[in-house]
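Sorry, can you check?
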Amino acid sequence: MRRHATAREPPENAAVADRVIVMDKGRIVQTGTWAELAEERDGLFRELLDLQRDRTVPAQRAAGEES
């Protein structure tokens, strides 16, 4: 069974896809598996992944501090 994630999904959701296609301004800029794209340090997918993680981690820390 093949699975896909749309561009509207957070990068973490693409982990279930057989292949990920990263587009920027209507052009394909990267393709590969989630693992391959996450390893590319200077790629757009990795940039988006890092941005998502940076936004999530402080929120999780703050929630943990309140407990």
The helical segments are 34-39, 44-66. The two ends are 42 Å apart (CA to CA).
